[in-house]
Amino acid sequence: MVNAIYYMIDTPVTYVREKFVEPNQKKYPWYHQQFRRVPTIDECYTDDVVCYVEANSQFCRDKLVDDEIVYILRSRFEQCAFYHGEDKHVCDDLRNIYEEAATNWFIKYGDMGVVINVKHAYMKQKHRMIWERRHGPVGSGMKTKATKAI
């Protein structure tokens, strides 16, 4: 008798869940919105405004993600340094990871001013590549005069 009452209540609920609820649920395991990757600015035509706007939106989202990554790494290092106090060498791994992330962030987004967009970042990357081709990696000093080919 108890099983009959249980199945009378459970069967419609199970049917609705399996036929309507589960097929309409999103199947990804993460809880933040995932955007599809769009063509980057170097893949857009010069007169394609829609492609430019999509690339700029993706660039802004990527910048926000990179900002949060650097913020989290800095917080972890600061918390470690605060917790260990005088034993700063315990947090050297976190410090190196944070400094590398901050350097990479500055290479990509630094010195771009207040209004930042994908075209400015692309030009910055292009100018950096030209500089490195002519003078060597940034921060290593300029190349000396090229030797003559024999």
From TrEMBL:
Lineage per the UniProt record: Eukaryota, Metazoa, Ecdysozoa, Arthropoda, Hexapoda
Similarity remark: Belongs to the complex I NDUFB10 subunit family.
Alphabetized UniProt keyword annotations: Electron transport, Membrane, Mitochondrion, Mitochondrion inner membrane, Respiratory chain, Transport, Ubiquinone
Domain of life: Eukaryota
Entry protein name: NADH dehydrogenase [ubiquinone] 1 beta subcomplex subunit 10
Compartments, record wording: Mitochondrion inner membrane
Membrane topology label: Peripheral membrane protein
Gene Ontology CC: mitochondrial inner membrane; respiratory chain complex I
Organism from which the protein derives: Ooceraea biroi
